[in-house]
């Protein structure tokens, strides 16, 4: 994962190993994630969306870099900060916005909202409202893959907060003893709500914990898509070839607060600005321009195209019907609707 | 073995579960077992004995002592085309895995809009009477029955232990099976081959005219024994074995109480806020309320952790004599 040594003409080797169209697509997806979240935030401020949401603005490189090599039959498990993962795994912003608006056309038919958003048909096993909740599920999916003799992999996203949960320890140990095809991706954005990783975590790098499970671990610049892509390529190849799990720590930063109630009392404006200066989209766009994989005019066209998509998606969401109240208990169980009325007075 | 012989074949409750697991492993290659010491050791209660030798380590998987991820891995595997059966060594240890059961397995289908189901089966050796004290003797099934999205069954006979387990493995949703440890050695007639008992249906173990005893798990066995004693007194008790506490067979309870006019609920879990409270509420909210000739009686676990001393342990959960006594007082108009 030494990108510096791998450079040819200033271009990280990994960027030469994937089709240029895939790189342009990755940039477009990063911009789409950003604009999706900014638009969701605006809609929330205007009172169009209720509840809460956790924005990943500033973390787009890890979400897209880790998912861009995946196929539909690969899986991810995601987190409460999962919009980028969801788009990275192929979800349509139309149905994501519809879910935010609580509409029947949303991915969860208005039952899940931002915190559970997922296109299961694309192998997303769910954004998860419980810190560390997705780790055992990812290992279970990897166990299925191994039993079914498939070449698929699971990318398991979690934050620095989850690395102190018991589920982290148990899951990494299981994946290691059974040599399962999982890539554990810790998006270390420096804070679990208000508690800094320095205060919460005994090791200086989450990746050091890989040693406890005898698996490779690496800390990378999570704001540089090329670094993320290189690490993803190595870990995914290892997993697909039966080499077992890897732990990757993407060092990144959430520019926005933890959720909509955050007043940023635990960090400084200077700190936020210093990370803002290393914006992952700006960095990757610059890299693609310098490498000649895209030109400025094409970037402009791309941004305009994303705006059109966002606008159409918002319109779709707003115009979509709400769920029927009479269908409150639909999908609690798979069949037999009479079962779903348990506990409801008749 | 001819048909006549197979009809009277008896197995223990543990053997019946073992046979159901073997049938499931045989007929569906996506089925596998996970749990602590279920392999060569055969499980803490020898329920999985011989399966490791027959099906190998890939189908009968020993796990580390790590219930949270163990249960969660079963959930993740169930979401992706596998049919795992996860064994908790003692049901008490499920407290370590509540997150994955309650927040994940139970809710995944609903919160993801019906796009996925979680056909996981979990087995919980439960109950007191083995001198294992407070952390290895609990009956926590009511907790799980409080969670929409789960199904919860409590077989009381070898026949049902097999049939309900095979039904659970045929069900698209998470099914929690609470097996009473004292029943593992009990014997009963078990048909050979594949069969299922429906989830969510109570079964009438004894017809009676004077009172209804609705019981769960081992309490069904004790209620039947109590009914025999009561018959000598001229009291004709009806015994309804609930078998499933989520979904719960409301109609069977209502029908029986309408017939007998009296109700005792017997269960091992802590009495307060337990299954009996729900049964009483079902009757109170139904047409059977008007049929009642006496207050509803709950006989449940005492309001304390399960103690070690055998006399104290027996006193902490309903025994046959307690059921007999309550029935006599109820029918005699003394309650």
How would you summarize what this structure contains?
Chain A has 12 helices and 7 strands. By secondary structure, chain A is an alpha/beta fold.
Q: Report the CATH architecture of chain A.
A: 3-Layer(aba) Sandwich
How many helices of chain B? The count is 13
CATH class of the largest domain in chain B: Alpha Beta
What would CATH call the homologous superfamily of the largest domain in chain B? Thiamin diphosphate (ThDP)-binding fold, Pyr/PP domains
The most extensive interface between chains reads: A-B, 52 and 46 residues
Q: What fraction of the residues of chain B are assigned to beta strands by DSSP? A: 15-25%
Largest sheet of chain A, in brief, is:
5 strands, parallel
Secondary structural class of chain A: alpha/beta
What letter string, H or E per element, gives the SSE order of chain A? Answer: HHHEHHHEHEEEHEHEHHH
Whole-Å distance between the termini of chain B? 53 Å
Examine the secondary-structure arrangement and name the CATH architecture of the largest domain in chain B. 3-Layer(aba) Sandwich
CATH homology-level superfamily of chain A: Thiamin diphosphate (ThDP)-binding fold, Pyr/PP domains
Computed structural class of chain B: alpha/beta
Q: How many angstroms separate the termini of chain A?
A: 62 Å
State the total count of DSSP E strands of chain B. 14
Query: The CATH topology of chain A is what?
Result: Rossmann fold
Compute the number of strand runs of chain A. 7
Low-confidence regions of chain B: none
């Amino acid at each position: 994962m030494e990108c510096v040594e791998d450079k040819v003409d200033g271009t990280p080797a990994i960027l030469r190993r994937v089709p240029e169209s895939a790189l342009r697509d990755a940039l477009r997806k990063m911009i789409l994630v950003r604009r999706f979240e900014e638009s969701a935030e605006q809609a929330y401020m205007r009172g169009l969306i209720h509840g809460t949401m956790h924005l990943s603005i500033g973390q787009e490189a890890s979400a897209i870099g880790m998912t861009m090599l995946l196929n539909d039959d690969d899986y991810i498990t995601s987190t409460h900060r999962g919009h980028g993962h969801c788009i990275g795994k192929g979800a349509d912003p139309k149905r994501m916005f519809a879910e935010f608006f609580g509409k029947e056309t949303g991915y969860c038919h208005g039952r899940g909202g931002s915190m559970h958003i997922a296109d299961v048909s694309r192998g997303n096993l769910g954004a998860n409202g419980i810190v560390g909740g997705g780790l055992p599920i990812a290992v279970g999916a990897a166990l299925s893959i191994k039993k079914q003799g498939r070449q698929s992999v699971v990318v398991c996203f979690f934050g620095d907060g989850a690395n102190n949960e018991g589920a982290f320890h148990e899951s990494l140990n299981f994946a290691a003893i059974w040599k399962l095809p999982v890539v554990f991706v810790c998006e270390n954005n420096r804070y679990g709500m208000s508690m800094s990783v320095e205060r919460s975590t005994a090791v200086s790098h989450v990746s050091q914990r890989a040693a406890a499970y005898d698996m490779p671990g690496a800390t990378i610049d999570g704001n540089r898509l090329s670094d993320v892509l290189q690490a993803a390529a190595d870990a995914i190849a290892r997993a697909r070839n039966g080499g077992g799990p890897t732990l990757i720590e993407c060092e990144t930063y959430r520019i926005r607060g933890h959720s909509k109630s955050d007043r940023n009392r635990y960090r400084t404006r200077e700190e936020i600005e210093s990370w803002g200066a290393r914006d992952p989209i700006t960095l990757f766009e610059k890299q693609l321009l310098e490498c000649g994989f895209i030109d400025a005019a094409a970037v402009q066209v791309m941004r305009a195209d994303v705006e059109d998509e966002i606008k159409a998606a918002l319109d779709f969401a707003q115009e979509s019907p709400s769920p029927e109240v009479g269908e409150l208990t639909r999908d609690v169980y798979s069949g037999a609707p009479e079962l779903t009325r348990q506990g409801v007075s008749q | 073995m001819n048909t006549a012989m197979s009809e009277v074949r008896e197995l223990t409750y543990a053997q019946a579960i073992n046979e159901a697991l073997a049938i499931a492993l045989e007929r569906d290659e996506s089925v596998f077992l996970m749990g602590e010491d279920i392999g060569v050791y055969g499980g803490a209660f020898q329920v999985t004995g011989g399966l490791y030798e027959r099906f190998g380590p890939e189908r009968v998987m020993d796990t580390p002592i790590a219930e949270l991820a163990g249960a969660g891995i079963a959930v993740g595997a169930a979401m992706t085309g596998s049919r795992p059966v996860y064994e908790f060594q003692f049901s008490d240890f499920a407290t370590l895995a509540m997150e994955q059961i309650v927040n994940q397995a139970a809710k995944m289908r609903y919160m993801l809009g019906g796009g996925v189901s979680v056909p996981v089966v979990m087995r919980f050796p439960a109950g007191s009477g083995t001198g294992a004290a407070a952390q290895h003797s609990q009956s926590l099934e009511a907790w799980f029955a409080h969670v929409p999205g789960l199904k919860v069954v409590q077989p009381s006979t070898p026949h049902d232990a097999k049939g309900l387990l095979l039904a659970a493995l045929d069900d698209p949703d998470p099914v929690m099976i609470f097996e009473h440890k004292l029943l593992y050695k009990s014997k009963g007639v078990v048909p050979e081959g594949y069969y299922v008992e429906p989830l969510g249906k109570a079964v009438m173990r004894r017809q009676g005219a004077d009172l209804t005893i609705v019981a769960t798990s081992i309490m069904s066995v004790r209620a039947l024994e109590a009914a025999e004693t009561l018959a000598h007194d001229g009291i004709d008790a009806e015994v309804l074995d609930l078998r499933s506490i989520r979904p719960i067979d409301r109609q069977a309870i209502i029908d029986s109480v309408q017939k007998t006019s009296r109700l005792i609920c017997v269960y091992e879990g802590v009495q307060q806020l337990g299954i009996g409270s729900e049964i009483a509420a079902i009757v109170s909210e139904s047409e059977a309320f008007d049929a009642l000739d006496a207050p509803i009686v709950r006989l449940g676990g005492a309001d304390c952790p399960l103690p070690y001393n055998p006399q104290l342990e027996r006193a902490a959960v309903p025994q046959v004599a307690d059921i007999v006594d309550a029935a006599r007082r109820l029918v005699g108009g003394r309650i």
